[in-house]
Design brief:
Blueprint (H helix, E strand, L loop, with lengths): L1 H12 L22 H6 L3 E4 L16 H4 L1 E6 L2 E12 L6 E6 L2 E5 L11 H7 L9 E6 L4 E4 L2 H7 L2 E4 L11 E10 L8 E12 L6 E4 L6 H9 L1 H11 L4
Antiparallel strand pairs: 1-10, 2-9, 2-11, 3-6, 3-10, 4-5, 4-9, 5-7, 7-8
Helix pairs in contact: 6-7
Amino acid sequence: MLGFILINTFSGIFEDKVEPTSQIETPAFDTPPANIETNKLLEVKKIELLSKSYIPSENPYGYNYLSEANRLTIGGEFIWAKINIRGETVGEGYRFLTFNFGQESGLINAVRKSKNRLDVKKTIEKGGAFNSNNPINVTIDLLSITEFGTTQDEYETNGATKFIKFWDKMKLLPPTVTYLLVAPFTETGKYGGASINSIEIEYACKEGSECKIELCPSSMKATSCLAEQLGIEAMNDWCTRSKLCN
């Protein structure tokens, strides 16, 4: 009862106040500058993985995997890590993209309809179907949870799509060596039909960390890349955890 009296009393205080004008002005500025997060607050570094455009072989996930995938050395702690993929289709029809990073693969912006087929309508709606009027231009945030189309083996248990944070799917966290592969395919499920012109990684380090991502040439051993690009200590750390250096 006391609460009711108090509310009544306070509400009466404002009964004789003048109503505000019908034309209320708003502040001139109510949004931050464009890209302030990346351009002003973070020191973003960029690395281009491709020296030339490529069209994948008939089976880039088979015996050609190690020669077609990009091998990366990764060290330090990151607050930002994104992959920008650019390309163009060759010939008529839609093209789609498979993406592999570390131990995980998926279909970019795609939705499965069955183990061997895509839901074309939903994939188009999600932006995962590319043609001459819609060239390949996608960005993958490695540090955020993102929706991808499942692989064939995953479809039976996970359904049409999955939510994944690719960074957590590396076999070993940094310092480490991992692989990245982007492979387009056609409406008939054949690899090819599009040229990948650029795979750019942009990243920023956590405060106090000297993070780095480098391309490790296929002609070099993983240990040599780690030692040369990240230092002997990073190489020894990786060798201890991976047990691959004996």
